[in-house]
């Protein structure tokens, strides 16, 4: 299983870019960038989740699973996060929470 580090860029009002890094020479060496993915959380995106019947917790689980699936597609294997997931999810929650109030 690949060990991954997620590094979010500065978020915009409707999305955040996330740099995906891995450790090809072990975690003692500096990580390298594998790809960059985007998490969209604009009004339309959240409206689609609400139409599926997802509450805030369901939406957060959706974003977590979607991020996992997208990264897995790009690196072609299962992975576990060694850092950055909490920061990414905090950014997403901060932005979508307003649509659920």
Average of per-residue pLDDT values: 95
Counting helices, strands and paired strands, the structural category is alpha+beta
Major sheet: arrangement of strands: 3-2-1-4
**Which value, in Å, is the CA radius of gyration?**
14 Å
Number of domains: 1
Percent of sequence in beta strands = 25-35%
> How would you characterize the largest beta sheet?
4 strands, mixed
Coarse morphology: elongated
The proportion of residues forming helix, as a percent range, comes to 40-55%
Given as residue ranges, the uncertain stretches (5+ residues, pLDDT < 50) are none
What is the string of helix and strand elements? EEEHHEH
Distance between the amino and carboxyl termini: 38 Å
How many individual helices? 3
Q: How many E-type strands?
A: 4
Task: Give a quick summary of the entry.
41% of the residues lie in helices and 29% in strands. It is an alpha+beta fold. It has one domain (2-100).
Summarize the structure in words.
With 101 residues, this protein is α+β, with helices and mostly antiparallel strands. It has one domain (2-100). The protein is 41% helix and 29% strand. It has three helices and four strands, in the order βββααβα. It has helices spanning 43-51, 56-75, 85-96; strands at residues 2-8, 15-22, 32-40, 79-83. Strands 3-2-1-4 form a four-stranded mixed β-sheet. It is elongated and about 45 Å long.
């Amino acid at each position: 299983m690949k060990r991954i580090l997620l590094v979010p860029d500065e978020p915009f009002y409707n999305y955040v870019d996330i740099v995906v890094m891995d450790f090809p020479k072990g975690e003692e060496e500096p990580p390298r960038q594998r790809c960059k993915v985007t998490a969209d959380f604009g009004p339309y995106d959240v409206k689609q989740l609400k139409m599926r019947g997802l509450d805030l917790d369901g939406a957060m689980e959706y974003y977590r699973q979607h991020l996992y699936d997208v990264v897995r597609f790009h690196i072609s294997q299962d992975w576990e996060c060694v850092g950055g997931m909490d920061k990414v999810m905090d950014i997403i929650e901060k932005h979508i929470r307003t649509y659920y109030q």
